Every structure is written in structure tokens, then in C-alpha cells.
Amino acid sequence: MYGGGGHYDGGGAGAGAANSNSLFGGGGFMPSQSTAVPESSGVSKQGRSAHALLPLTVKQIMDAARASDDKSNFAINGVEVSTVRLVGRMLGKVERVTDVTFTLDDGTGKIYVNRWENESSDTKEMADVNNENYVIVNGGLKGFQGKRHVVAYSVRRVTNFNEITHHFLHCIHVHLELTRPKSQMNANTATPRHANQVQFPNNQETLLETMYPTWS
Known about the structure:
CATH 2.40.50.140; three-stranded antiparallel beta sheet; alpha+beta; five-stranded mixed barrel; single chain
């Protein structure tokens, strides 16, 4: 599924992006592939801090609105966002004396990433990743002169491609929780469910089972 130097089957990255648009038009999601155990996803709008690590796609970031109370921050699904997790392909890596820059392409869009090398451990971390590698990026979402970018504090090479699937499913999970009607959220509170069980609207549950049969 991930042969050919990190490109998707079926015509490479372009075809993958086209397929993603047909499956998740307008949602910013695509059927790609992440396994690292997700950070706690307390996904209630009231309980989530703007500094909580939020799994996102590049499209969601590009579609994000400016937070009304602070023009330097962004809001997605009504929740203020400043710290994000992205998973995608590293392109155009440029190494400089004090930092490394590159473009991250996750199939839903591309975004500029900057990683400062303040410690020897930072330099070692960035030496382990190269162009065309799939990477997991954790960092702060920033905006400057109308352009959005990420200042990373962690860039890790994907060694298990299930990590990519897991990331996008985590994005969908959080998106659905944040956009669930309040009445439905109250009903779910009254009826406890497994922590990883999500009620998918319409045909999304069937779609996800096709994408990831072990989802439960």
C-alpha cells in the first residue's frame, strides 16, 4: 500500500488526494494511515484548552477561522486551537545553522513547518528524517502575513504506517465529538459508552469499517 518511496498506490499522491476528496468532500479528511497512542482527547468544547494537542489535517487548518477574542489564534469547530498534531510527507527539507524548514503534505493540503534546533537532541531528531519520509509533527499553529504555518517542537519519522491511519481516524473522532449536537451529547452522557466508541452519523461508520476493519 505504501510502496514507491512513500507514495500511495493507485497513481501516487495525486490520485490519493483525488480519492480523499471524493470520500470526505469538504471535511478535510482522507483515508491515509497513525498508531501512536493518541493524547487524551477530552473533546468537549467546554473542557478543551487551547493548548491541548489537537489532531488535525492541513485542510482543517487552512479552513480555520480566526478566534474572535485573539487575532493571533485560530478556531476549529468553535474550539480555539494553538497546538496541533499533523501527519504527512516531508518535502523540500532545508537545513540551516539554527533551524530546519520543510513542507508537510498530508494529502488534504500542504503547510510550511519550521523546527528550531536549540539543543543537540533537536539536531539529532531532524537528522533522522528526510524528504519523502512520512513524519509526525507536533507544534504550535501560527499565522503571519495571511499565511499559516507550524512551529514544530517535535518531528518524528513514521516507522509503522498504521500510525497514519490512526491519525486520520483520530481526526475524524475528535471532529465528530466537537460537532455533535448538544442534545446528543447530553443523551450520550446519560448512557455511558466505551471510551473509544463513537456514534457515527449516516454511513460514516460503514465507511470507517471498510477503511480500518479493526476499529471498535
